[in-house]
Amino acid sequence: MTFMVESDADTTVDEVDAIVEAAAAAAGPWAASEPVDRARMLDGIADRLDAHAAELIPLAMRETHLAEPRLAGELKRTSFQLRLFAQQVLDGGFLDVRIDGADADWPMGAPRPDLRRMNIPLGPVLNFAASNFPFAFSVPGGDTASALAAGCPVIVKGNPGHPALSRAVGRLIDEAIAECGAPGGTFGLIFGRAAGVQALTHPAVAAVAFTGSTAGGRALYDLACRRPVPIPFYGELGSINPVFVTADAAQSRATEIAEGLLTAVSSSAGQLCTKPGLVAVPEGSPVPAELARTAPVPTGEMLNDAIAAGFARAVEQVRSHPEVRVLAGGGPGEALLLATTARTVLADRDALMHEMFGPATLLVSYRDTAELLALARSVHGELTVSVFGDHADDTTRALLAAAAGTAGRVLWNAWPTGLSVTYAQQHGGPYPASTAPSATSVGTAAIMRFLRPVAFQSVPEELLPPQLRTENPLGVPRSVNGARAQ
Amino acid sequence: MTFMVESDADTTVDEVDAIVEAAAAAAGPWAASEPVDRARMLDGIADRLDAHAAELIPLAMRETHLAEPRLAGELKRTSFQLRLFAQQVLDGGFLDVRIDGADADWPMGAPRPDLRRMNIPLGPVLNFAASNFPFAFSVPGGDTASALAAGCPVIVKGNPGHPALSRAVGRLIDEAIAECGAPGGTFGLIFGRAAGVQALTHPAVAAVAFTGSTAGGRALYDLACRRPVPIPFYGELGSINPVFVTADAAQSRATEIAEGLLTAVSSSAGQLCTKPGLVAVPEGSPVPAELARTAPVPTGEMLNDAIAAGFARAVEQVRSHPEVRVLAGGGPGEALLLATTARTVLADRDALMHEMFGPATLLVSYRDTAELLALARSVHGELTVSVFGDHADDTTRALLAAAAGTAGRVLWNAWPTGLSVTYAQQHGGPYPASTAPSATSVGTAAIMRFLRPVAFQSVPEELLPPQLRTENPLGVPRSVNGARAQ
């Protein structure tokens, strides 16, 4: 990041070239870094974030209008995430080491040679930072942490919503890199749409991570696919995060569900990729009345004018539908609750299952179980689908099956907005939730996006990477002849 | 495959629609099939291939001109491969089950909910069969076996080079499917370029596997990316499979290397995706003389006229270069050995590092170690790179590092044409070797291409898939709270 620009200007063509070339030059040394050094660098970034919280949080507040407690929690989550990836580096499980000894009697019909396989880093990763999590999905976020952990240099295309914070965090990352002796090109930061496109199409960039809108993400995905050498594009795009409430649950827990929904829709001014944007409840249930009773619910200010304008346009598309009415809210700084029927949504799916990125949701009333299931089965690719129910019965089983068929995460009696960073987390899903349904952008499996396997055939011990040597000097988990071994 | 066409005609538009819709209808039941039933179906296909070898092999010989021993070996490999995937289904490791218990003290700063994650099938897979392995990379080959093992219905776009064999094998697969009670749509077979494109762009198809030429594969990849809902495209395209021979090895083992090379170039008439197409030897080494002494080496007849014409065009592109000369062979039914210098290749990389799919290779002489390393570092994405050396020294280390940086499989003193089906195998690599560098099309990891993870949050035991229940009734391998457990 030697070339980091301190002004508000977009990164120039020459600067982008220099940053990408520095990343390309750093790729070999960083891929070859010792696990302890790589982990120390990730821990070093986490330590610096924590140590500088008192400066970073006010800066984030100014640039994003998010509240202090939310940003403090996000910063803690971000440094935790960096340390979790440092642990993964030391563990080595992500290398997926597989060793097949030579076997003259291998039943394939020909002797099996000695084959040893492990994952290696893909190369420089370009990371388009999100607007709504200035720490956790931005410069020091999960994409950066997992790519660095994989052994890839990272170039972050900073989000225009929080440039000063991005630069401040970038300086801390540079310090951590320098401390562990890695090349400066291991991390770079660029700004501007044209700079992002230039980096995306640079031959040295090997993979892309993106979190943002469906339209913006799809345009970049298309560019990645059209390169002479296409590269993996891990895009987390839009999601409605539908919630299906059974008749039982709507009756027995109407107040609790209404309160939970209002919190999920209004917190962080609804600017969460997992905000529930469609909630199906039975006709005549007490839920709408409970909602109307509690509303209007205040929300914070939105991230910036561009996000607010996009939200207004998306809301207008849904609200202007002749069969949609306002249930409550929608004044300045208030969450907006819209309402319609399942019949209307099923008849006009694309207009009404439409992401409104901000504090709004669409309450959908269904007449019977058949209509509820038809609605659940009409959903396209989603990050999350939630089911509220009281029992394991045919309806809840069918709802959960439909949910698993369309979403990366399926919740039971829980709201999707809390996204835990864990080993089993999955943040992704079929398109448009993600452009890569087999990948996750949150949780320890996120590291797998930036690796590719290499098999070494008949290579003698002294020429093998240490992770593949029989003596296993680094103690990495591995499978030997198809069986898990330590 | 109820709709399978018995004539030579291409599958019609209506037939393709019916086959894809049958696959979509089969997706749910096949995904929900018990592991024992799924394994029994794969074993059933293998048993039928073995039982019908006496009819299938002569049919394959007529349609492909490949020799009986080669086809007998390929059939054995193919049934072995199906049984290996049946074992994977029973093992369940590919599900990558991860269980995080609820943890109120999770250090992220917020309580961790109960999260349980496993891989589920993507849905119907379209498999473009290859010309050169009428069993192992065709209707009953690795893509079909791994997709069925993953729980995905498979539609094979049959290769036009062996339609009768494809249909005969398709009938055996249908029998195996019927025997295990799976829906008929679990397997479909279509013919014709237009039919393939129609299936590729059908909304119900969820992923594509392809083995073939770079031009053909890239065109289909582009179509997959441009769909309204893009889908993963696992294409194995072209590869040169360069071989780098050190000065030591060229001196000490010239005869052995020359013989090995001639076998690798001429067997199966050079129609192997792993045929070595460029071999670097030191200037003045005895290898060219050894080659010239042994040549001309007879090759079998080529697969078909289209392949022969493509080979002739590719050879002409290389041979017509003013700095390329014929070293030996090239008459009808003979392997062709071309020769040039490393300097020439480095000056005109794209013209000379050009796949010649057939019995030809380009011998490249280098002047010194610097030129050898420059050549090794100029290589683009490859399935394999081989290094022949006598010692672990700076040169061989640098060659192996360059090889790992560009290829999916790295060989030491071995020819790349034998491709073992094992746990640690990797058949893929950076583009154009593969359109998905993190995937393999051979070996047990090939199953991972057709899966996506789903995380279940706070779902009670009785509503979870059995693989995610605490008691682990199916005994699948899993990790619990980040640690491997049984």
In brief, what are we looking at here?
The structure is a homodimer of 486-residue chains. Chain A is α/β, with parallel strands linked by helices and 486 residues long.
- The helix tally of chain A amounts to 16
Count interface residues per chain for the largest interface.
A-B, 87 and 87 residues
CATH class of the largest domain in chain A: Alpha Beta
Cross-sheet strand order for the largest sheet of chain A: 10-11-12-9-8-13-14
Structural class of chain A: alpha/beta
Number of strands of chain A: 17
Computed Rg of chain A: 24 Å
Helicity of chain A, as a percent range: 25-40%
Strand content of chain A: 15-25%
User: Major sheet of chain A: size, sense and barrel closure?
Assistant: 7 strands, mixed
Mean pLDDT of chain A: 96
Oligomer: homodimer
- CATH superfamily (homologous) name of the largest domain in chain A: Aldehyde Dehydrogenase, Chain A, domain 1
Q: Number of folding domains of chain A?
A: 2
CATH topology of the largest domain in chain A: Aldehyde Dehydrogenase, Chain A, domain 1
**Can you tell me the residue ranges of chain A where pLDDT is under 50 for at least 5 consecutive residues?**
1-6
